Amino acid sequence: MILLSKLVFQFIMMTIVHICVSANINNQNSALDHGLYEKVLDTQECIRQLDYITNNENFGLKGQFIDAGIRTPRGILLNNYRDMGNYFQCLDIKEVNQNMLVEGKYCVIEVPFPRNINIAEFEVIGLGFPWNNHHWVKDSNTRTNNKQTYQPLQQYELENANLEKLLVNGKLQSGETRKVKQNYIQFELAICIPKVCSTQQALSILANNTAAVSDIREVFCRLPNDKPWVVVDYIAIAIFSTIGLLTIFSTCYDVRHSIILQNDSKKANKLYKTFSVFTNTRKFLTFRSDANALNCVEGVRALAMLWVILIHTFSLQFSFVPANPIDVHEFTYSFLSLFMTSGNITVDTFFMLTGLLLVYSQTSKMSRPFLKNLHVFYLSRLLRMFPVLATGILLQASFQNHITDGPNWGVVAKSTDDCRQYWWTTLLYVHNLVSYGYLCLGHTWYLAVDMQLYVLSPIILVWVLGGTKKSALGALICSLLAVLASSTIYNFLMEFQTSTYALSRSPEDREFYTQYYYIHTFPRASPFFVGMIFGYLLHLCRGRKIRLSRILVIFYWLLATVTSLTIIVSTYFIIQPDWDNQNVDSLRNSFMRPAWAACVAWLIFACVHGYGGPINWFLSLTIFKFLGRLSYAMYIFHLPIIYIINATALAPIYFSIEFSMHMLIVVTTITTLVSFLVTVFIDIPFSIIFQMLLKGAKFGETALNKGSVTTDIGGIPQRIDNGLRP
After folding, report:
1. What is the arithmetic mean of pLDDT over 678-699?
2. What is the rounded distance in angstroms from the CA atom of residue 514 to the CA atom of residue 507?
3. pTM for the whole thing?
4. How far is 476 from 472, CA to CA, in rounded Å?
5. Is residue 452 a contact partner of residue 355, using CB atoms and an 8 Å limit?
């Protein structure tokens, strides 16, 4: 059995390495076949096909190109400068006539339009297709004095202009580029042209004026069947097919042994039933209670995960193609949007939970030599995190590129390319430091920071596990103070801006903030150490009734409530366009996150020791245990699902809170379903195999035996030492 387990493990590892090496060696394995776009171009055939289309008495083919092509953007007064045409209609055009094959090609172009023309003084006509020689024109008869109609747009443009003046410091762009951006609006318009034509050639011929289209820039083009099947796709099919066959075999064996023959399930071959959906699902849905279990943690973890999904659902809807950018702009900087704009603080909840559960679980094994089992400490964590993360990477590098399509699919295609090239940085948990800008599953930067802190934690744990209470508390407090002091100095020296408005308008500042603060390990470490302190306090109070005076409990609850609300509400002032206080920004960057972590840690401490009241009851509900067990998989898969949904949108999405909440329900439902399937079909089986390997290797027995603080995932004991992973 052990030999077979080792062979399965080696096969999986070799296959994954082969996938990643193949994807890395063959640079042609791009998600979209860019060579195809150049290959199909034919200048002479383009002239011939355009002449046939425009001069054909049958309006059918011409009408298809016109109907699928360029139009006036809807919602210009709401600052929408994008029209997406009709993507699938264009790609479906195919006609054979006069020894020629006419096929459609979908392209997006940028058309500059002067800003200095009052929007109330022009009318757009004839933008059905350029061949009818209609142009943007000014018409004095269309003037209006309705100032209220254009006031939001004028205010939006004014704020943009004022911000551009503030950002003129020589770093962002040259003077000529700034002048172009200030004087022109860039319309992004979809056009449908014959496949053999380039956009410049097609527009020049149809407009009969090369100079008129000289300023038009092609953004991208798409063709039918431009997603090539590459090596990684076929290997992914082989891997998931193998897992599927193992699941069928294992489930049939389990059902025959336990149900048909009605034998004792404990006497069944454990390896044969490893992939059994019947057993794994039953165990997953069985919730056991333990005397040392921190039941409220599951509720905290689940709610934090749902908050993350909510934030990404709203924010990514903004970042694609909103049909009413002014409404998005007004909502983003309103008080109502605080649930979204202040939501990035929730990630610090996971960092705190990692530190808390790490210390709380390790201190239950204080009698065992920690340093002698350090290899198990690292290896067991890596193996527990590996199956779901590797599944997410493999799906992103293969199937997700083929699952559907849409005019915004380039975002998904880039994620696929990044995973095919930089898979290894994610599996090594260094992608936040090594491959910024090309992040495979970019949102997993949290896992990188979390793992890096986990790797460094033994420096403190040796004092906690091997010393006295005073030395343990001293080491924990000193480490927190050291991190706070050094990160404060770092933040004041780097001067990170936190104004959402400024960051949204300055790509360089936004990348600087993200790379060196938001996803960097050092400035995000303090909540982890806060969690370690509270984890040790929970250990000291383990099995004891802690008596606190009512006044002291009320004081701590008020302090935690006021502090957390202050952190959330203060975000409203920070995100405003006129915010400019670097000292407050630096102080907030240094102390906001550990303060939030302390508030959530107090909530857990109070709930565990009977001072949580209805809050403890709510956080301990069974539904949160279910979601808590899925939280790790939900974190991995929710963002790719949001990308896929938004990338398939065929028209700009009109933002409203109601529609976004509908999207949230859809995303959460699909994410939960996908996470459940991955957990039952992949995560639980491979966790069992890895446990067999550790025990069979004779070095994991001590660390994995009974007595440690555990929580069950599908009936499989797992040490609770990670903020997302139970």
Report:
1. 81
2. 10
3. 0.84
4. 6
5. no
